[in-house]
Amino acid sequence: MANNEENIKLVQYLDGELNDRDAADLESQLAADSSLRNELENLRLAKMAVQSYGLKKQVASVHNQMMLKLNTEKESIRLRPMIRTFLSVAASVLIILFSVGFYEYAGISGESIYKDSFQPYRAGQTREAGINTASTVEKAFVSNQPKQVINEFEKITTPSEKEYFYAGQSFLNTSQPKKAIRCFNSIISNPSSTLFKEESEYYLAMSYLKNRQASKAYPLFNLIYKNKDHLFNERVSIWFLYRVKFASWKSS
Q: Which CATH number fits domain 110-251: 1.10.730.10, 3.40.50.10490, 1.25.40.10, 1.10.10.10?
């Protein structure tokens, strides 16, 4: 079985995310390694199964239809071949899912990952520690008053980087991920932003998860995972990255 790094490359290969050189290198490995080819095929099939979204729903739907038709003996006899075919197909799909460890994530979504992983930001916990400002937005944030943060932020015509960041946090904490996304993007897109750049990358990705946009969250988390010096690198494990990828497949 492929190791974690190889699995990530296989997933990226399936999604067309590898550059030409890396793709060519991987194809050479695939040509020489039958077990790696099998792993790729398992991932390909699992992706199809995950994208079909709803193995459980499909099983329940077919089961209900069968039960309705099985009310008469005549219908029961007629449906026996159909039942055998259905069970065979369902078993094959389950084997594929189990073989790559995906079955327990049949109900995975960006929002469920967010709920499992989100840790609220605390003022002063990273690089702005020691910086003293009289901003009403910051005062409200330090006092843990997200609604007041938003009220004060919306009065400002030209928010600072810090005010955008605290407002983004407050929008996220009050279940307004679309507004949080705009705030964090304002920081990331500004080339002069330095204070909250990495914090904004991480919480923008979390905002995308909350907003059911796992496909937009994945590239950001992938960058954080690859950058060992990133402030939030330790929060993005290889398995966390897998889960986000699975969720992006389901939403595509």
A: 1.25.40.10
Calpha distance 11→17 (Å, rounded): 9
Residues of the chain with pLDDT under 70: 1-4, 45-107, 124-134, 252
pLDDT tens-digit map of 102-138: 445 566 889 999 999 999 898 765 555 444 555 899 9
Q: What is the pLDDT of residue 234?
A: 95
Distance of CA 64 to the CA centre of its chain: 32
The number of C-alpha atoms within 13 Å of 143 and in the hemisphere containing its C-beta is 10
Q: What is the DSSP string of 79-148?
A: HHHHHHHHHHHHHHHHHHHHHTT-GGGTT--HHHHHHHH-----TTSSTTTT-----HHHHHHHTT-HHH
